[in-house]
Every structure is written in C-alpha cells, then in structure tokens.
C-alpha cells in the first residue's frame, strides 16, 4: 500500500504515488492505449494498491481518459479518490483559457467523471497573460466557493512559472515537471511547499527514459519522435550516469521515484500508466526510501552535469 501525504495545507490527503491518466485511453496520440475494460482494471488495481490520487485532463486520449475514469469510479465512494483535472485544452484538441470556458470545462469534466465536484483543478500549461491573470484565478476561486472544486492552481514546467503562480496569492495547487534528469524547478517547489501549496510531480520518469526501457539505439514513432538522434544519445548517456549513482539492487525506475519522494515538498508523483503491470511496478518501486547520501549525490550530479542546460521536454 502506498504512503499517504498531505496536499500542502489544503486538508486533502493524497497517495505518494498517483495514477497519471494521460494514456488511459486509445486515441490518435496513443493508438496502443488501453481499451475501456482494461482502463477500468487499471483504475481498480490502483485503488486496491492504495493509490488515491488520480490526475487527468479533458484532452487526455481525446476525452477518453476522463470517460474511462468515470466508468471505473462508478459505485466507488467519492471520498476514496482525489481527482485532479485541468482546464485550457479541450477533448477535440483545441485551446480555450477564457473565463467562461474554464467554468464550462470544470462542469464538463465533472460530468465525464461522474462526480458532483472535483478535488483539484489546474490551468493546463497556461500561456503568458493567463498564468499571471488575476481574472482567471478569480474564476477558479469562485468555483471553489461554490463547492465545485476544493483546490486550484496551474500545471507548469519551470521555476519562474511556479513563482508566478505563487505570486497570484490564491493558488494552493501546483503540478510541476520534475525528475532526476530535470531538477530546474526544485527551488521554487520548496518555496511552494513553504507557502502551503500541494505539489504534484508530472513527467517523473522523464517521458519514459527513467523507466529503463530506452537506449541510444531506441527509435520512436509517437510523440517521443520529437527527439533528434543527438537528443536520444544524450539522454541515454545521462540515464547510464544516473544509474551508476544508485545503490546496488535499486532499479532505475525505483531510484527515479524514490529520489522525488525523498523531498517533503512533493505531495504526489504521477508516473504514466498504460497497464496494470505499469501501475503495480510503480507502487512497488517507490515503497522503500532512498538513502540520504544518494539523494545528495543525485542533486550534486545534476547541478554539475545538467543544471546549466536543462533538458527540453
């Protein structure tokens, strides 16, 4: 059973390992994603393993992620799961961050998920002009006052973006890209923790690289085809260096997840899941702590090796 942690000072409790539902459905982007029945089995396996936090979005698997979650959670007590979704990107691939669209998106997500309220809602990688917009946070605040959501904030990638969200003075939830190979936002995550914000870590396995599945010879045909051959070679080499820092017997995926969970500022980590086996392996991998000296070594290695030129997504 996975550890439970406070989500900042919101009063929400979340599982240390969450269910990242980006791939929880079959779509153009993920043609090999799970069929609806398999998606239901994944969600039920997560609940059985003590995973209580689920992260999704209207656009994930072209809307199928939220619909599959709704099917899986039918009959499940509402308090048994913490649901986080996003606003700004639509199931049909469009983008709309307008205040009216935020309200419609929240209501649409709740309908697809089959619930009367959402626990956490974040602006989905908002562009300049939205990430620091008092109007947008005011809309989310009204939805919280109305009982439709419990906490809100933004999903971002960089240190300066985290600080911009915190400067709004209203947000109490952040979803942040962070991994052993991408630690650039870590100082701001610490600041968010001190401010009482809950922090969800996204892309914790660096788009699969820290799962141990890829090598310098790997080729990609899905969204990972964005990497050049030089990018692939660099990432493969960095993974080898990271692996060498881990204690004997600790796998790459276990080291990657345990490294993130060693930080008290991290509320939950959401590795992507496309099968029951993926889900169970993540829970097992994160079950034991990483030695403090290993955590320190990984941070020092990142600062020396990568820090000046953070990896792009």
Topology:
Blueprint: E1 4-6, E2 13-15, E3 19-20, H1 36-48, E4 53-55, H2 64-73, E5 82-87, H3 99-113, E6 118-124, H4 134-145, E7 149-156, H5 159-167, E8 173-177, H6 186-194, E9 198-202, H7 229-244, H8 252-261, E10 268-269, H9 276-285, H10 292-305
Parallel strand pairs: 3-4, 4-5, 5-6, 6-7, 7-8, 8-9, 9-10
Antiparallel strand pairs: 1-2
Helix pairs in contact: 1-2, 2-3, 5-6
Description:
This protein is α/β, with parallel strands linked by helices and 313 residues long. The chain has a single domain, classed as Alpha-Beta Barrel (TIM Barrel). The protein is built from ten helices and ten strands. The strands form two sheets. It has an eight-stranded parallel sheet with strand order 3-4-5-6-7-8-9-10, covered by helices on one side. Strand 3, helix 1 and strand 4 form a beta-alpha-beta unit. Helix 1 packs across helix 2, helix 2 packs across helix 3 and helix 5 packs parallel to helix 6. The longest helix has 16 residues. The two termini are 31 Å apart.
Keywords:
313 residues, TIM Barrel, alpha/beta, 10 helices, globular
Short summary:
This protein has helices at residues 36-48, 64-73, 99-113, 134-145, 159-167, 186-194, 229-244, 252-261, 276-285, 292-305, and strands spanning 4-6, 13-15, 19-20, 53-55, 82-87, 118-124, 149-156, 173-177, 198-202, 268-269. It has 313 residues and is α/β, with parallel strands linked by helices. It is globular, with a radius of gyration of 18 Å.
């Amino acid at each position: 059973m996975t550890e439970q942690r406070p989500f900042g000072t919101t009063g929400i409790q979340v599982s240390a390992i969450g269910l990242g539902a980006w791939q929880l459905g079959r779509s153009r982007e993920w043609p090999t994603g799970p069929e609806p029945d398999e998606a239901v089995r994944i969600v039920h396996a997560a609940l059985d393993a003590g995973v209580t936090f689920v992260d999704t979005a209207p656009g994930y698997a072209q809307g199928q992620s939220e619909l599959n979650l709704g099917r899986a959670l039918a009959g499940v007590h509402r308090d048994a799961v913490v649901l986080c979704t996003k606003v700004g990107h639509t199931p049909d691939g469009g983008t709309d961050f307008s205040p009216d669209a935020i309200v419609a998106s929240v209501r649409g997500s709740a309908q697809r998920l089959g619930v009367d309220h959402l626990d956490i809602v974040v602006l989905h990688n908002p562009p300049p002009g939205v990430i620091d917009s008092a109007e947008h946070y005011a809309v989310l605040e009204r939805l919280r006052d109305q009982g439709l959501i419990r906490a809100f904030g933004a999903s971002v990638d960089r240190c300066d973006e985290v600080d911009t969200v915190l400067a709004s003075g209203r947000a109490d939830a952040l979803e942040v890209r962070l991994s052993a190979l991408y630690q650039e936002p870590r100082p701001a995550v610490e600041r968010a923790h001190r401010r009482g914000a809950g922090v969800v870590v996204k892309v914790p396995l660096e788009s699969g690289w820290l799962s141990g599945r890829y090598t310098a010879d790997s080729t990609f045909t899905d969204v990972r085809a964005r990497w050049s051959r030089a990018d692939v070679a660099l990432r493969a080499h960095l993974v080898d260096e990271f692996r060498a820092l881990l204690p004997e017997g600790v796998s790459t995926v276990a080291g990657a997840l345990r490294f993130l969970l060693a930080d008290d500022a991290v509320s939950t980590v959401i590795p992507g899941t496309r099968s029951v086996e993926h889900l169970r392996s993540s829970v097992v991998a994160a079950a034991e702590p990483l030695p403090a000296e290993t955590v320190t070594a990984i941070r020092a290695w990142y600062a020396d090796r990568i820090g000046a030129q953070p990896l792009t997504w």
